[in-house]
């Protein structure tokens, strides 16, 4: 039995997803990388979107 506790529902969901659910992972539709948790994929996508190309001229 797991001793983890959390006052926040989203934190508990992340814990359960990362530690107790067997999954093939969550794949990025842009680059194909796979992440263990949905939250990791969400962070990855945010970071990719934040990468703004700039003109070098």
TrEMBL record:
PROSITE patterns: ZINC_FINGER_C2H2_2. Residues 26-53 form the C2H2-type domain. GO terms for molecular function: zinc ion binding. The keyword Nucleotidyltransferase does not apply. The keyword Lipid metabolism does not apply. It holds the Pfam family zf-C2H2. Keywords: Metal-binding, Zinc, Zinc-finger. This is Longitudinals lacking protein-like. It comes from Caligus rogercresseyi (Sea louse). The lineage of its organism: Eukaryota, Metazoa, Ecdysozoa, Arthropoda, Crustacea.
